[in-house]
């Protein structure tokens, strides 16, 4: 490929003043207020949380602010949870192009979350430590909420319509038949613990390793069929607002989503988080680390989340979630917004990396050097292959068709899909 061809493929540079102008024009509806609180009780000390309400998409421009809240529930030690807390956000943001509008940023976020989770897992496994962690990672930009999760921590949404919705998928082998099939198809075994006499006890686990979860970050000593590829869901609230409850399984093993939401309605976020933890303790006792973060997304003209109106559940259940309208300016949209409907923008849970990155994933830099879609490291084209290429694919033949993966990330991809064994390279 000639330099002229590369130049034509480069995305045009956008002046900062133009970007700022776009942001101002896009702020048609005033941003909501974000209020949050957290509470925790430790049993093993392996739960961690992240609260960053003051992130900026464009440095120095407050109008581009967004918030991040996350729960990391570690197992077999704390190293993976701490590592993910310290590195995951930067890895996600590093996978989003810089010169984009807010709308383009939000559209790129689901793919960037996948890349960020996988990159964090690869980097942690290179340390040679064996702990693992679940992750529930929430990004709030104005009225748009994007949630990525692996494991069995959970995020629920309590809208002003009074209906509680689950924004995550539990990756427990016991409850998730689709994940059981994926693990066995990739070379793992699923079964219960065998005790003396041949009796089977406890929840379903995958072997080797004996992990109850099918997705996590870390777990170097478990097969690569335990993947870090998250389920991602993106929704847009109406301007009535709503409440998120993000918590580790110490909460959800004790309380249902409905009970947790109803237990703290009408309380400010900080008191709500404490009450959810207290209710879980009262229900089950302290059998596991128990961590809860409550986030209220509040209309700017309200000091607290407005009380949930009492409406008929059967009417709202068919309206509370709807797919993105073909005509977002329609009168129907306005009517549904008035009752607190939530617009579903995106949802994907596939564990196939190439499906999650997409064929249109940018694979080249302004210098003409190719960039790995996962680790974001610049690579000469002959050092990697498009992730969807066949073994006999020639790097000299249209290598820019994405997603482009470096050799290391391609090995990770193949191992996750059961195509080859993978042993992490431990850094010296």
Automatic annotation (TrEMBL):
Domain annotation PPM-type phosphatase: ranges: 28-297
Record's keyword annotation contains Mitochondrion: no
Molecular function in Gene Ontology: metal ion binding; protein serine/threonine phosphatase activity
PROSITE patterns given in the database record: PPM_2
E.C. number(s) listed in UniProt: 3.1.3.16
InterPro entries (alphabetical): PP2C, PPM-type-like_dom_sf, PPM-type_phosphatase-like_dom
Cofactor or coenzyme needed: Mn(2+); Mg(2+)
Keywords attached to this entry: Hydrolase, Magnesium, Manganese, Metal-binding, Protein phosphatase
A Pfam family this chain is assigned to: PP2C
Protease as UniProt keyword: no
Reaction catalysis annotation: O-phospho-L-threonyl-[protein] + H2O = L-threonyl-[protein] + phosphate; O-phospho-L-seryl-[protein] + H2O = L-seryl-[protein] + phosphate
Family the entry assigns: Belongs to the PP2C family.
Protein name (Swiss-Prot/TrEMBL): protein-serine/threonine phosphatase
